[in-house]
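Supplementary Data S3. Sequence and structure tokens for construct A.
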Amino acid sequence: MINYSTGEVRHLIENYQLVCGRRDTTLTRISNIFRIADVDSALRFLPDRYYEVILLHGMIGLTMQSTADILNVSKQAVSKRYANALEDMHYLMNTN
């Protein structure tokens, strides 16, 4: 089991596509397979309001304002949800 720091969780989410592209069975990159599996597994347990901001802002890279517009909430709500979602992802990735 990998013990993820909060910074690593954020990096994995915000660079998800890049990390996915760097996974293969070579010894130096096989750990990316496990990291992506841990992200994917944790995402299934997030409440919808957190999953949405992780997907739109964190993984796709939309601005907080664009995310707020799509979700019809304030930019502050997106910011708070994103911070809470990262905390939840950190917990889920280190306990499941």
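Construct B, processed identically:
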Amino acid sequence: MVPAVVVLKQTDQLQIMTTEGPGGLLIMHLDGPLTLATLFDFQNSVREQKDTGLILALDGVPYMDSAGLGAVLGAYVSCQRQGRRFALAGMTRRVLTLFQVARVDTLVPLFETVEAAETALDEKAERA
């Protein structure tokens, strides 16, 4: 069975699509830059989600500014407060460098692929 893809928001620069992963995880695929100009739709989309966990697939994000970084960290903190699982997957080299320079790459769970993030979050749920 192929999971349904739902386009939540689309701006001139950022497209946000979701798929449902295993165990009620929401996978949010971002395509386009995550910047001050595009982050409000992203923030609203994250706030609307009440799934058991969230994976942000960032392989389609060519760059992110400090406002975008703050929005991603806000999503992480929100999930932590609500007891929801959270991970980032598929970061481009440029976005990963931003996380490293800001020294938050060790704070937020990062994975090379969505599949690796799904596996790790599923294992975390099983241990809980």
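The chain has a mean pLDDT of 88. The longest helix spans residues 66-81.
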